Amino acid sequence: MRRAPSSGADFVALLLLLLLLLFLFGRVRCSPEYSLGRSSSPATDSLCALLIRPSGYPCSEHIVETKDGYLLTIQRIPHGRKALKGKPGPPVFLQHGLFQGGDTWFMNSFEESLGFILADSGFDVWVGNVRGTRWSHGHTTLSVYDKAFWDWSWQELAQYDLLAMISYVYSVTNYKVSYIGHSQGTIMALAAFTMPDMVEMIESAALLCPISYLDHITSSFVLRAVFMRLDEMLLSMGIHQLNFRSDMGVQIIDSVCDGHMDCNNLLSSITGENCCFNMSRMAYYLEFEPHPSSTKNLHHLFQMIRKGTFAKYDYGFWGNLLHYRSLHPPAFDLADIPDSLPLWMGYGGKDALADPTDVQHTLEELKSKPELLYIDNYGHIDFILSVKAKDDVYGDLIRFLKSRGCSSSY
Ligand SMILES: *[C@@H]1O[C@H](CO)[C@@H](O)[C@H](O)[C@H]1NC(C)=O
């Protein structure tokens, strides 16, 4: 039950929420901290150099240009710690979630992190990084200071970023790509898999915390932000980039967490209770995350929560007529995903973002019957950072990938 507070109390609560966002998470601002333009990240500030090679894995950086001019960096780990003779194994593509980057797959030890485990299991691992993240902030004509640079939501991430990245991997490896996505990486996939061009490059797909419908979300933090119309407020304030990270922000989070506040609770209020999150690695995670995204993306997600739809961005009456020649934004039809595409889904009973009720809704609309792994005590972050994820999740996920299609012939 949501009670409508008096407007005075509402205003104070709203200010408090903003302060919480601005100071707990860092500052919302246009970030000057990333280099601009066409050049790729300097070798010292790349995912390969910072996280992957130091762990003893081979890694190369690749720049992919999207149809609308964004320059994305994707990483390739062609094999595990032991060099293999001959050609690389089957390609697998990892797509991170909202406010995350490709680093998310490599932040625990090589025995715990999915990216490393896949490389050591014989896969040719490719790592996606969507526009706006630390690893993918280039554009052919725009800079991160331009409002237009941030004029997109997950819809463009599906239609442009994912298509460009998967096409690149497909053309380099000459094999259909196995897809693994988490959270927003699953919205992108489910939207993109309704496109025939996309699906013919995909071997199989494993979705961690799958999201298409969002109207049963239980995250107290997100529900509060939706209720207060944080998205619309930020847009009306002219804030188009959402960057919860800055040196100051990280210092503040560190000092707040350091014995004064249980940051596990802050994380829980956003993502749901995570059973197996290693709190002693928090400072390390915060060296890389959260990554920036666009306010328009947040607005699109909040539209889905408010309306219970899995549809394109709602521009309002005139905007919809202009963009879609219809009063309402067109819905994505999950039944357009061919049932020949093998799907696997992992979801958790404590997940406050990908709620099991919404997962059921997704399943009802799909033509195919995905293989399912339900873990009662897993929250949203457990699926990537749980210290037990290898046994709880990745074993079954890798069994699924290896059982499908041509990958079994390796
Ligand atoms: C948790 O993180 C600490 C600090 O990085 C590490 O020493 C420890 O091994 C981790 N625990 C597990 C179970 O992975």
UniProtKB/TrEMBL annotation:
Active site: S183, D351, H380
GO biological process: lipid catabolic process; lipid metabolic process
GO molecular function terms listed in the Swiss-Prot or TrEMBL record: lipase activity
Protein name per Swiss-Prot or TrEMBL: Lipase
UniProt domain Partial AB-hydrolase lipase: residue ranges: 51-108
Keyword Signal tagged: yes
InterPro entries the UniProt entry points to: AB_hydrolase_fold, AB_hydrolase_lipase, Lipase_euk
Pfam families named in the record: Abhydro_lipase (PF04083)
Cleavable signal peptide: 1-30
Family indicated by similarity: Belongs to the AB hydrolase superfamily. Lipase family.
Organism of origin: Musa acuminata subsp. malaccensis (Wild banana)
Alphabetic keyword roster: Glycoprotein, Hydrolase, Lipid degradation, Lipid metabolism, Signal
